[in-house]
Amino acid sequence: MKGYGQQQDNTPLKWTHINQIMRDKKIAILAVQETHMDEERRESIGSIFGRRLHITASADKDSPSQRAGIAIVFNKSFVNTSSEKTQVIHEGRAILSSIEWGGKKTLTILAVYAPNTASENTAFWQEIRQFFADHPRVRKPDIMLGDFNMVEDAIDRNPSHNDGGPQTQELAGLKADLHLRDGWRHLNPDSRAFTFSQPLSNGGARSRIDRIYVTDQLLERSSDWETNHSGLANTDHKLVSARVTNAAAPQQGKGRWSLPERVIVDKAFRERVKNLTKLAWEEICTMKNGPRTELNNAQKIYMDYKSKLRDEARRRDKIMTPKILRDIEALKKDLLATEGSQDESQDLTSRLIEEKIAVLEKRRHNKIRDLGKVRNRLEGETNSRYWMQTNKDLKPRDVIFALKDPNLPDGATKTSSKKMAELAMRYHNDLQSNGRERDEIERELVIRRESKPKQTSNTTARWRKQSAQQR
């Protein structure tokens, strides 16, 4: 973070950006270093952003608001923070947090901000190793992440060189003790990607000092190991991220596709919808004059109409994708071809591409922020869905991890979403048919008989006629 940052109207500006980054990028857990945040500042941030963010932190012992400092930030939209427990291993440098992960699983995270100097860096890893040796009952971390201020391999520095032996040996010992490994390096054994870059005026050194280590079990259930610009201003570090999956979580698909809001309000799309609707209605009116067939009926026309709407929405969505996103994706492809090259000209090209991406990401971040301010100005004090959403407490969705199958012995469970849906459907159908002993044919005849309109008796008709005449 490079410090706590300035305040505006008693609001820390950097933390407003962190709140936005976690919301827009859907980050569940974020480790932040160099926070310069004492307990008073942590409570102040909690009072402002407590609806979305839950922060556990540790400040430097000697200069809590001037140097070091580390925090783990939980997004309440995705994480149940009621069970969060944190231990401080080294004030301002290392904290260990545990949360309930669902399905009777616990996730433990070790966030670190290692010192710069080689001797202090070595002593830092020794201290963490000693902590776990002295506290054997403390749950070892599933994830270790943060700013390590050193690399294990020469490939992770440009210009390439190895860091000192003692610090790499101590980190290797800690990894062995905790059974952790570098997930990105495991998946990209020969690639180079840098998370920290110095300006050329300061030497231009680049390195991959920000890393995420995970257990073998989590590594098998991880994906999307990425290094991207966060959009946060005044930082020389990139955002390192990965997606990990709970082993107890049910199998889930990609979800149901829905029309993006920006497409729904698009004038060109709405005009196209009007034309498609008019054509479909004309086809239905024409069909009424002829015989109904399997290929010529209202249901078939309606199905084709919805398919055309979906295809048109997807086509329009691609066209409406902001130009800035297309430019960023194009630059990232160019960066893959040049990043990590030992050639000086290629290295300079990759630096220029990195700078362009950083500028575009910041511009995109600020544009989203400005749009949010405008919407809040227009709808923030109105009785609208936006106002209700902004004032509603955030909490993660309740996930059903398993359902018992009554047809299986010993209370065996199903964890597949599809199988659980079938169990729920079967249970519902059994409730509907429970106690229904009537023959299905007889039941259908009764329904048809009862659903026919009843004819009015002659007596009632005469009474109505007389009443009308009297009026």
From TrEMBL:
Pfam families: Exo_endo_phos. Its cofactor is Mg(2+); Mn(2+). The record marks N149 as: Transition state stabilizer. Residues 430-471 are annotated as: Disordered. The active site is at Y113, D147 (proton donor/acceptor), H237 (proton acceptor). Residues 454-471 have a biased composition (Polar residues). Residues 18-224 form the Endonuclease/exonuclease/phosphatase domain. The record marks H237 as: Interaction with DNA substrate. It comes from the Eukaryota. Belongs to the DNA repair enzymes AP/ExoA family. This is Endonuclease/exonuclease/phosphatase domain-containing protein.
